[in-house]
Every structure is written in C-alpha cells, then in structure tokens.
Design brief:
201 residues, mainly alpha, two-stranded antiparallel ribbon, Hypothetical Protein Ta1238, Chain: A, two-stranded antiparallel sheet
Length: 201
C-alpha cells in the first residue's frame, strides 16, 4: 500500500464518517496541531532518553502515556459526530476523565520535588527543559484552537480540560528536569530604566 493516496491534492481531507472538508477547516487545524504537539513530546522523550534516561524514567513514562492519549484526542477531534449521550459509542476513541486525572496525579507528584516559585521564569535552562517549554506553548496554542472550534462545532469538553492540564504538566516537568540536572530556573526581571540607558550608549 502506497503512503500517498492523492485524495487530498485539492486541499480536502476526510473526517470520521467519510465527510470531506477543507484542510483549512478549524477542526483539521486543531487535530493537525495535536500531531505537532505529539511530535514535540516525542523529541522531548528522545532528548531525555539519550542523555539522562536514568534520571527521568518516571517523566518518560508519563510523556509516553501522553503521546498515546494525544492519539485518542486526535481521533476524537476527527469525528464531527460527537454527542454527549453517545460518547461511548463502539469503535469511537474518546477522551475520558481519567486521562485528565492521570495528568493531575503526575503534576502533584512532581511538584513535591520542587520549591515553590513566587516569580515568573523564562523558558530555558537545560536543552531538555527548553524543548519541554516549547512543547508547552504548542499545547497552549491548541487549547486556543479547540476553544474557538467549540464555539461553532460540537466537541468532547474533556479535550479542553486535558489540554489545559497538559500544559501545566509540561511546565512542571520542565522545572523538574532543570532541578534534577542541577540547573536553576531563570527568573524574569524587569530591567531598570538606568540599565536600559546603559544598553543604548
């Protein structure tokens, strides 16, 4: 079987159920971005595994589970026939509440290792944490895209909760990765007027 089908050569693609729509439709943009997020998490796992896998086996496990969850979310978004009363319809993959709860449990567990922060931090530190922050911003963007989609089309509301919690998880794990590697969070500070003047001279 060839990987290319030529069925999308005119800018259309098929949804679950067979209906064809523009590849520029908000639904397609949303679940396409989920694929981007999944790929970013894959890159993060690769970095953690190749350099410091022994330090981050618990993080790698939850991120791998997250990749599986994102396949479910992509499938859910690809089905325009979502109805709350038949959300457990056979053969339809749906985001479930326990997926959100699993993220919350991981966030709570990882936070026990971290010192509370009372300031904003800049994305960065180690390469691994920087990649995680980058992936976090993709999760935030998808949350916005799905929110806009939900204004005009029916979606599973659990998806929004999951994406919101996932960006929180990625923030916490970015800090956790830095701490375990001995890298400090980078605080954001407003430059003083005097410092700005010195930079211009």
């Amino acid at each position: 079987m060839k990987i290319y089908t030529k069925t999308g050569d005119r800018g259309e693609t098929g949804l679950v159920g067979g209906r064809r729509i523009s590849k520029g439709d908000p639904r397609i943009i949303a679940y396409g971005s989920v694929d981007e997020l999944n790929s970013g998490i894959g890159m993060t796992i690769s970095l953690l595994s190749s350099r410091n896998g022994h330090l981050f086996s618990d993080v790698i496990d939850i991120l791998t589970d997250t990749q599986r969850d994102l396949f479910v979310i992509g499938s859910d978004l690809a089905d325009p026939g979502y109805r709350e009363e038949n959300q457990y319809q056979q053969n339809i993959q749906r985001a479930q509440k326990n997926m959100v709860e699993k993220l919350e449990e991981s966030i709570d567990r990882f936070e026990t290792e971290l010192d509370p922060i009372t300031f904003f931090i800049l994305p960065g530190g180690s390469t691994e944490a920087a990649q995680m922050h980058l992936t976090r911003t993709v999760a935030r963007r998808i949350e916005t895209q799905v929110t806009l989609l939900a204004k005009n089309q029916k979606i599973n509301p659990i998806i929004l909760a999951y994406l919101n919690r996932l960006s929180d998880l990625l923030f916490v794990t970015a800090r956790l990765v830095n701490k375990r590697m001995g890298v400090k969070d980078i605080p954001w500070r407003i430059r003083s007027i005097e410092n700005n003047k010195q930079m211009k001279t």
